């Protein structure tokens, strides 16, 4: 009988760790017990939460600052207690948010040249007051609207901040116990949460109401969730009653369980990274030395295991590069930065082998760019929009090289709206048109003189 193999573009994807001279070392990662990734990355910078005495701090490194860290390298040190989470603004590669045990969330602007040897202690904006009363352990930027930030704390409470006004716009207080994870859907109209009470909840953020809730994994250990909006799925990882680690797929509008599979017997809950462009899911747990990657099935609610990336050193935390920061010229479909407890950060590239050196359009469909689709005010008023897509083809001006172009100046709060032509740009365009006209007249005059000379010499 003939055997049929499932067709997949990513069947042969494999992970490769960077060489030692392309890694980062010489720092102490935070030893806080909060379940955090302790790092975040974008096409310009890598942020790492540090072990610090007398207040919280995190490190910001340019991608070319590899090797052993200079002991005098500057830090971002504005919190009075441990930093618990960091997140880069998807619409401004120079802006990063941090949350802390001191109950505050702070917004920082980083210059293109990085920190150098100067500590940064003054935030661009500090979000505090009476919104959070306990440590803030997770922060997430809105996927399509500028200047909108979500924070989750041990209250347990979720706050949606309007950074244009610097105030808490929405407070969601529907969880009876610790919020373990939060994830936005693709247009930012809903979130999915997992809670210590073992329930998964879909929440309409602006209406501040629970759309549906369902019992998640049966085990007592934590569970994590991620919105897979492209397929109308919720993906979760958790534990069975017998403490076996497992994943599940749920219907996103009703939380009907569609698939449940056991992974292994490890005791750490994996971090979920979902790639909406390739429908791939990467799982990496603290203390594991393996990163597993799966592919969601478009036709059936199932995850197909592809392979594992293994190393000799357990990971302390892991973060993933946005797709616009990946190297499409080497067919790099994903890139993660893996922290280990000894103060070492190792970039790992996941690539798909292809014989052709041309741009592989099937591997790299248009992806989310660095332009917001909505203003904060538009979103709070009820408007929805899908993320703006950009091409990754270097021939179209996209790809990693295009994504890493430095921005001219810093876009502050209230200025991260969709770009508009400024008056200066219009003046430059008028001046350019006038210059072209003058050059054309000059060329015509020169052609007449040449013709006259040719007639004179009888050519």
Give the biggest sheet: 6 strands, mixed
Assign the CATH class of the largest domain: Mainly Beta
Spans where pLDDT lies below 50 across 5 or more residues: 400-412, 414-425
Rg, alpha carbons: 25 Å
The termini sit apart by 83 Å
Task: Kindly identify the CATH topology of the largest domain.
Answer: Methylamine Dehydrogenase, Chain H
| Class inferred from helices and paired strands | mainly beta
Keywords, please?
globular; six-stranded mixed β-sheet; 2 domains; Methylamine Dehydrogenase, Chain H; 459 residues; 31 strands; four-stranded antiparallel β-sheet; mainly beta
Short description:
With about 450 residues, this protein is mostly beta strands. It folds into 2 domains: about 15-410, Methylamine Dehydrogenase, Chain H (7 Propeller); about 425-459. The chain has helices at about 375-380, 400-405, 425-455; strands at about 15, 25, 40, 45-50, 60, 65-70, 85-90, 95-100, 105-110, 125, 135-140, 150-155, 160, 165-170, 180-185, 190-195, 200-205, 210-215, 225-230, 235-240, 245-250, 255-265, 270-275, 280-285, 290-295, 305-310, 315-320, 330-340, 345-350, 365-370, 390.
């Amino acid at each position: 009988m003939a055997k049929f193999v499932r067709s997949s573009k990513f069947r042969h994807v494999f992970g490769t760790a960077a060489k030692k001279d392309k890694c980062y070392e010489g720092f102490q990662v935070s030893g806080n017990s909060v379940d955090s990734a302790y790092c975040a990355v974008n096409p310009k910078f890598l942020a790492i939460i540090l072990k610090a005495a007398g207040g919280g701090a995190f490190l910001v490194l340019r991608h070319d600052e590899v090797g052993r860290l200079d002991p005098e390298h500057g830090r971002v040190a504005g919190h009075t207690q441990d930093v618990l989470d960091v997140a880069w603004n998807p619409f401004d590669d120079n802006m990063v948010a941090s949350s802390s045990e001191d109950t505050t969330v702070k917004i920082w602007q980083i210059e293109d040249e990085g920190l150098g040897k100067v500590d940064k202690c003054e935030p661009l904006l500090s979000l505090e007051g009476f919104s959070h009363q306990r440590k803030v352990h997770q922060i997430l930027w809105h996927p399509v609207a500028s200047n909108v930030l979500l924070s989750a704390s041990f209250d347990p409470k979720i706050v949606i901040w309007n950074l244009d006004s610097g105030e808490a716009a929405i407070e969601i207080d529907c969880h009876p116990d610790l919020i373990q994870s939060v994830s936005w859907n693709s247009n930012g109209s809903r979130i999915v949460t997992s809670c210590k009470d073992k329930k998964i909840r879909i929440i309409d953020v602006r209406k501040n109401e629970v759309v549906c809730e369902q019992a998640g994994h049966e085990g007592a250990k934590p569970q994590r969730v991620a919105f897979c909006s492209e397929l109308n799925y919720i993906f979760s990882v958790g534990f069975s009653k017998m403490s076996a680690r497992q994943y599940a797929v749920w219907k996103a509008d009703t939380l009907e369980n569609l698939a449940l599979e056991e992974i292994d017997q490890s005791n750490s809950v994996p971090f979920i990274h979902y790639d909406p462009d390739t429908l791939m899911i990467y799982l990496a747990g603290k203390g594991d030395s393996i990163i597993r990657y799966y592919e969601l099935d478009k036709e059936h609610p199932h995850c197909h295991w592809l392979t594992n990336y293994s190393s000799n050193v357990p990971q302390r935390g892991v973060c993933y590069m946005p797709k616009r920061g990946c190297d499409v010229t080497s067919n790099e479909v994903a890139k993660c930065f893996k922290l280990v407890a000894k103060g070492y950060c190792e970039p790992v590239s996941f690539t798909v082998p292809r014989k052709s050196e041309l741009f592989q359009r099937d591997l790299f469909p248009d992806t989310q760019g660095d332009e917001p689709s909505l203003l904060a005010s538009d979103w709070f008023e009820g408007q929805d929009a899908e993320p703006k897509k950009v091409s990754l083809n270097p021939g179209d001006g996209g790809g990693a090289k295009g994504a890493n172009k430095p921005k001219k100046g810093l876009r502050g709060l209230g200025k991260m709206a969709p770009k508009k032509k400024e008056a200066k740009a219009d003046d430059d365009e008028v001046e350019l048109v006038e210059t072209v006209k003058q050059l054309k007249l000059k060329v015509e005059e020169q052609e007449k003189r040449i013709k006259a000379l040719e007639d004179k010499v009888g050519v």
